[in-house]
Write a structure and sequence with these properties.
This protein is 44% helix and 17% strand. The chain contains 14 helices and ten strands.
Length: 335
């Protein structure tokens, strides 16, 4: 990925009205190929879904623009849903899962699920994976011990229900908060490119890109078997709105929780620990300040809560592979 593309990707942060520390929009990377996919494999009428799936193949990629609620349904394949832009409520076996741009869910075959429209400007990519693929190309992967492989093999055991909800979480799905990851949109974009190139048929290259995506998720620690419900979304939004200026203890008290419980609750729901959530809020705020103000790097690091400019430099470069000054210079050139 060249620097201009990187800047355009980072600059999409400006499109959001509110901070979402667990995700950065990646629509600019996927949109062109999504439009091409949408011309052929757009889901609107679930009753006609089988008519567009090629018999004898194990992978299908479908597009979905969520302008209205999508009715309850189930099917005989794993469904991997990636939100390109917008937000949606994915209801799986009665459990509400709030998903924003960059979030990903993996739903079990036969799980009953539906989509609720909360943002008519939402676009999704659905990757359908038949279990038979696990006996072919993905056989060795499915026999590994990663959480994703265990989930795909159907060996996951029921877990205790979240004491703050009425849901009975039973591994009907996995939720992934991929944050600033560049790998996930790269792999999904490559899958769409290959699918279009092959006239919407399964190929070895398509299987290879899927394996890379699953391997990334298998090594990703940011997953949850519960996900973000309405309550968790409200808490998360409060945290991201106040964490630059308030401590965890102070925010927990305002919300009526013990600080340790609140941190554990966020980890359970988002797959991310409190420090990671705050780190992404700080990074996102720094991107906005670098792009929209003439504040010095020192002042930006202080405003965003970093202990020192050198600490800010190190974290920024670790995530974005360039210095804050380089980002500012390139952003100004491409604006």
């Amino acid at each position: 990925m060249d620097e201009k593309t990187m800047i355009e990707l980072l600059a999409t942060v400006q499109e959001q009205n509110s901070l979402t520390p667990h995700t950065i929009p990646v629509s600019s990377l996927l949109q062109d190929n999504f439009i091409r996919l949408n011309q052929y494999y757009f889901i609107h009428d679930i009753s006609k879904l089988n008519e567009i799936l090629t018999p004898g193949e194990d992978i299908y990629i479908l597009s979905h623009i969520v302008t209205e609620d999508f009715p309850r349904h189930n099917h005989d394949y794993f469904e991997l849903t990636y939100v390109i832009k917008g937000s949606v409520v994915n209801v799986v076996d009665g459990n509400e899962l709030y998903m924003n741009a960059g979030d990903l869910s993996l739903v079990n075959p036969q799980a009953i699920h539906e989509l609720r429209c909360i943002n008519p400007d939402t676009t999704l990519v659905n990757i359908c994976i038949k279990p038979s693929l696990l006996e072919g190309t993905l056989k060795k992967f499915s026999q590994s011990k990663s959480p994703v492989a265990v989930f795909l093999s159907g060996q996951a055991k029921k877990m205790p229900s979240d004491r703050d909800t009425n849901c009975d979480a039973s591994f009907g799905y996995m939720f992934f908060s991929t944050g600033y990851s560049k790998e996930v949109p790269l792999y999904i974009n490559s899958m769409i490119q290959e699918y279009v190139r092959s006239d919407f048929h399964q190929t070895f290259s398509l299987e290879a890109w899927l394996l890379l995506l699953l391997d990334f998720l298998a090594n990703c620690s940011h997953y949850s078997f519960i996900g973000i419900n309405k309550k968790a979304l409200g808490i998360l939004q409060y945290i991201q709105d106040h964490c630059l200026h308030q401590s965890l203890e102070c925010m927990a008290a305002e919300l009526g929780y013990n600080a340790n419980y609140l941190a554990g609750y966020l980890k359970k729901r988002t797959g991310r620990n409190y420090r990671e959530i705050v780190r992404e809020v700080r990074l996102k705020a720094s991107l906005q300040l670098l792009a929209e103000t003439s504040l010095s790097i020192y002042d930006i690091s202080e405003t965003c809560g970093y202990s020192s400019p050198s600490h800010f430099f190190r974290i920024f470069k670790e995530y974005f592979h360039m210095t804050p000054k380089k980002y500012r210079d390139l952003f100004v050139k491409t604006s």
